[in-house]
Amino acid sequence: MVLRPNGQWAIAGTNATHLEQLDEPYLIDVGFGAATHRTALPLDGNKRTDTNGTHQVTQATERTFDLIQENELGSRTLYRFHTAKKNLVDFHEGCVFNQVAKESSFTHHDIVSCATKTGRITLVDQNLDRNGKRRSRSI
Question: Pairing with 11, which of 25, 82, 99, 104 sits 20 to 30 Å away (CA)?
Answer without folding.
Answer: 25
